[in-house]
UniProtKB/TrEMBL annotation:
Coiled-coil stretches noted in the UniProt entry, renumbered to this chain: none
Any Pfam family: Cons_hypoth698
Native source species: Nonomuraea harbinensis
Name used for this protein in its record: YeiH family protein
Top-level taxon of origin: Bacteria
InterPro entries: UPF0324_pro
Family label: Belongs to the UPF0324 family.
Membrane topology term: Multi-pass membrane protein
Record field: transmembrane: 32-53, 65-84, 90-112, 124-141, 153-177, 271-291, 297-320, 332-353
């Protein structure tokens, strides 16, 4: 957050307080239905608030704060959940399955999106959410690549839709195929979108620990993928998109468009072209890998990351045009293709290597 904003805390309070109230509701839903992440609930609440005209201009400073600096803090803390030694301890076969399935899905999905006529930003976010780790990956890529809020919402809808379907489809398919518990664990972690969904399947089938560890291997790939796109792509400002969306709903003129300049390498929140929050994610993963971080700290950091991510997603949701989102049938189809890719490639790898 810029220094002038730090001097304007009263201006932040309305938006922050509304975000806190929505966060409480999202956490309550998540507690009742653990397979539904608080982040997904929060973005729905944000879109609902915007749709009913409740996102007023006076809320904007606080909403901008939770949709950018808070999001970046959440991604940094997420790095502490990733233990590289534990992931490598699963064996090279599992690592190969995760890397190939993630890489193929991330590379092929935007190509399929172009064939379907899906906007490039939406294709990128669907690819990221399905290939890596659902809502957290979508939010991180959205912030770094400068995609539209509606595109992020459409990608989140895809993750929820197909991830929820996986809660039934993966165990049934594994039983039909006669997969061993270790094969089921690797396939679940390598193919299912959200960590919460992986945990739900793992708990129901007795493979919780291994499945979640495999999933965190995919989370680790978030950093290089975001860094790659950030280094080669454009960097629009989410705060500007959010401000313009609210201005349009209020009947006010949006600020004149400004062409975003690429940040100089090593300056303006970037290190050698890589966003600082992505570098922070890598540092936290390396710190966790030393084995010096107490389990209690890791648990608290994980809870804090989930809370901050949910707050950020509420801020993002308030900039969504629901009517535009409902016209995104091709994006849903693309999500099905991406889900089939990550599921099919990872299953083939499991059958061949695990």
């Amino acid at each position: 957050m810029p220094l002038p904003a730090l001097r304007s805390l009263p201006a932040l309070l309305p938006g922050v307080l509304v975000s806190a109230a929505a966060l409480g509701g999202a956490l309550a839903v998540n507690a009742a239905v653990p397979a539904v992440s608080a982040a997904v609930v929060a973005v729905v609440l944000g879109a609902a608030l915007a749709g009913f005209g409740g996102a007023r201009r006076r809320l904007l400073p606080g909403l901008r704060f939770v949709s950018r600096p808070v999001l970046r803090a959440a991604v940094v803390l997420l790095g502490l959940q990733v233990s590289v030694p534990q992931i490598l301890g699963l064996g090279w076969q599992t690592v190969v399955v995760v890397v190939v399935a993630t890489g193929v899905t991330f590379a092929v999905t935007p190509v399929a999106g172009r064939r379907l006529g899906v906007p490039p930003g939406a294709s990128l976010l669907v690819a990221t959410g399905v290939a890596v780790c659902g809502a957290a990956a979508i939010a991180a890529m959205h912030d770094s690549a400068g995609t539209e809020d509606d595109e992020a919402a459409a990608a989140l809808a895809v993750v929820v839709l197909y991830g929820t379907g996986a809660l039934l489809a993966i165990p049934l398919a594994a039983s039909w195929l006669g997969l061993s518990p270790s094969q089921l664990a690797v396939w679940t972690g390598a193919a299912v979108h959200e960590v919460a969904q992986v945990a739900a399947i793992g708990a129901a089938t007795g493979v919780l620990t291994t499945a979640v560890t495999v999933k965190l291997g995919r989370v680790l790939l978030l950093a290089p993928l975001v860094a790659l796109v950030s280094y080669t792509g454009s960097h629009a400002t989410p705060g500007r998109r959010l401000q313009d969306a609210h201005a349009g709903r209020a009947g006010l003129p949006a600020d004149p468009p400004v062409r975003p300049a690429r940040a100089p390498r090593g300056k303006a929140g970037r290190v050698a072209g890589v966003p600082l929050f992505v570098a922070g994610f890598v540092v936290m993963a390396c710190v966790r890998g030393t084995g010096m971080v107490p389990d209690g700290v890791v648990a608290v950091a994980g809870q804090a990351a989930n809370i901050l991510l949910a707050a950020a997603m509420f801020g993002l949701g308030t900039g969504i045009d629901v009517r535009r989102l409902l016209r995104g049938g091709r994006t849903v189809l693309l999500g099905g293709i991406a889900t089939g890719l990550v599921g099919g490639v990872s299953l083939a790898g499991v059958l061949l290597l695990v």
